[in-house]
């Protein structure tokens, strides 16, 4: 067997025994990362929240992030927090990520689905989650837990048997790199 034949045989063997990669992200990481990617669309200068709704077949059926309602120009409506008049702060206007994800659904309904969201849902979103039939909430941060709106959310979730579970990341960062050299990843023949 000459050298060229030998090299060809080795690479054929490598192809035939190739194993699947094992550093892929799991479903939870994927759905929470989709929620975090959606949050990057938010114009809120202080807090960007994303939400991703998933059905029992692991299919994404809704995505949303916090933003102004359709028609309410996000250059004209306020983004401040602590203004003398509530009419001049964002709170009376902004649609929360969970609300947008539910309203943006691309399936007939979101019954029995799970919602992945960066921040624990407020009382208004909790009501929408319950009424829409979503059965599980996976959240990353509960930084507002002491506030009445969030205590109310938990009261309602408990009464309505909605499961809520904090997501504990296995990895702290998922990188998206558009600068891939595809020829290095899979050389063309
Ligand atoms: N579960 C949540 C909680 C909050 N948001 C939105 C609403 C505001 O745009 C922002 C919170 O503003 P902050 O008081 O932190 O300046 O986040 C949401 O979409 N979902
Ligand atoms: Zn909310």
UniProtKB/TrEMBL annotation:
Its cofactor is Zn(2+). InterPro entries: APOBEC/CMP_deaminase_Zn-bd (IPR016192), CMP_dCMP_dom (IPR002125), Cytidine_deaminase-like (IPR016193), dCMP_deaminase-rel (IPR015517), Deoxycytidylate_deaminase_dom (IPR035105). It catalyses: dCMP + H2O + H(+) = dUMP + NH4(+). PROSITE patterns: CYT_DCMP_DEAMINASES_1, CYT_DCMP_DEAMINASES_2. GO terms for cellular component: cytoplasm. Keywords: Hydrolase, Metal-binding, Nucleotide biosynthesis, Zinc. Belongs to the cytidine and deoxycytidylate deaminase family. Supplies the nucleotide substrate for thymidylate synthetase. This is Probable deoxycytidylate deaminase. It comes from Bombyx mandarina (Wild silk moth).
